[in-house]
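Researcher: Checking consistency across runs. Here is DUF1569 domain-containing protein again:
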Amino acid sequence: MKDIFNQSHAEEILNRIDNLTLDSKPQWGKMDVAKMLAHCSSFQDIAMGNAFPPRGWLGILIGKFVKPILYNDKPLAKNMSTIPTILIVDDKEFETEKKKLKQKIITFQSNGPHKCTNHPHPFFGKLTAEEWGKGIYKHLDHHLKQFGV
């Protein structure tokens, strides 16, 4: 499975982000491309330990049992629910969000697994750095596929 801590996997994601344009349209879902970039950036903040959304009751009950969906080779389901605090509803500026996300990916990747958060994921709970690395790649891949790149 691909992992954002792997340099070549991170570069692949960054190149795919560069292939997005303001006119990129989603193949599913309601977010436009700028909101998607902001959403992915907000998810990076959680993994980097810069945001600490609370755990919801459903995640507390079943999160650890479904956690493997975050770091296996099966694609994430289209239109799955998201963490409420990273659901982007306000309009965003495409180029700003693109630069912000790319910088966060570069920082996260270059900091390495030892700088990954110890704070639990708001749904899945405690993740190892390896699980975060695979989960970050899978989340980004999911949304880039959503926009055809």
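Researcher: Does this match what you'd expect to see?
Model: One thing to look at in this run: The two ends are 19 Å apart (CA to CA).
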